[in-house]
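INFO batch 0412 | record 1 of 1 | parsing
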Amino acid sequence: MQMDYQARIERLRAAGGLTSGAVDAIILVPGANLEYFIGLNFHLSERPVLAVLTGDGLSLVLPHFEMPKLIERPDLEARPFTWSDEQGYEGAFAAALEGLGLKGARLGIDGMTMRVTEWTALHALDSSLTVTGIERALIAIRAIKGVDEIAAMRRAVEISESAMDRLLGEVKVGMTEAQIAARLTQHMIDLGAEGVAFSALIQTGANSSNPHGSTTDRALQADEFLLIDWGAKFGGYCSDLTRTFCVGQPSAEMQRIYDTVLAANEAGKAAAAPGVPMKAVDIAARTVIDAAGYGQYFTHRTGHGLGMDGHEPIPQIAGNVEDLLLPGMVFTVEPGIYVPGLGGVRIEDDVLITDTGADVLTTYPRKLKLG
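INFO prediction complete | emitting C-alpha cells
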C-alpha cells in the first residue's frame, strides 16, 4: 500500500497537541501507532526506540543496527540519535533531550504502549518532564479506515475463510486443540498471510465455556462444541472471526444456545449503521440473549475495533458507549453464551460502517453441525 506518511504526520501533530502548543513534543514507541503514522516497524524489546516529533521535525532514537530502516526512508527527513549495545541507550536519550531542546518539556505519549522502561529513563535524565496521554486521539484517527486499509482487511478475511475451508476437511475426533490450531495457522500462511492477527484460539467441549481461555492439548470428542477464533494478517491489517461447530450430533440444548447466539449476531449486525450509538449494537445483540434466558452467560461486550491491531479501543461495542459509529470504522460483532460444564458458543463477524449502512466483511457459513 502507498501511504502518504507526511499527511499522517501532520495529522499526528494536530491530534497530539503539537500544533496547538499543548505539548512540546510527541513521543511514540514501537507499535501500531508508530507504524501507522510514520511507516516504520520496530520490535518493542529490551532495546528501546523512540520516535520524537517536535516543531522542527521528526527524530529517531534507535540502536545503530536499525539505521538501515531509516536510511530507506529519506522522505521522513528524520534526525537519528543512535546507540550501540556496548554504550547502552541512556546516552542517546540524553543527546535527544539536549539536541531537541526538550528540557522541562511537556510530552505527548501513547500511554497504552510506552512502558515504564522508556519513561523512567527519560525522567531520570530530567525530572521536570511532564507527560500527557494522547493515545485516544491517535486511535480515533486510526479508527477511520481508508480505501487501501479496507482492501487489506478484505484480503485478510478472504485468507482466513479459505484457511478454514481447508481445516474443516481435516478436523476429526481425537485431534487436540493444539493440533487444530497449528494446522489452521499453517493454512493461513500457505494462502498468503504475512502472519496471524493473534494465536488461533481452539476450545473444545467444556473448555469453550471460558470466553478468553487458551488452546490446550485436550482432544476433541464427538457431540461437543468446537469453538474456533482465528484471524490472518495481510498488509499490516487484521481479520478476526469466530465460528462454533459440533462434530457429531448436538444436543437440543446445544442447538438452542447456538440458535440464540446466531440470532443475537444477526441482530447486532442489523443495528449497525452510520450515526448509530455504539451501544445500540450491543443492546440489540444482548436483548436477544436476555430474552432466551441466557443473559447471565453473556459475559463480555459485543465487539471491539479492528485494524492494525486485533483489538482496537475505538469503536467500543459495549452497552454504555454513547459515541456514534462513523463511516470507515471496522469492528467485530461477537455475542456469546458460555455455560460452565457444557461449553460455549460465539459467532463473530467483522463489520465496516459505510456512508449508507454496514458491510459485513466476513461471509463464512454460520452453522453448527459439521458433516
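INFO post-check: The chain has a mean pLDDT of 97.
INFO record closed
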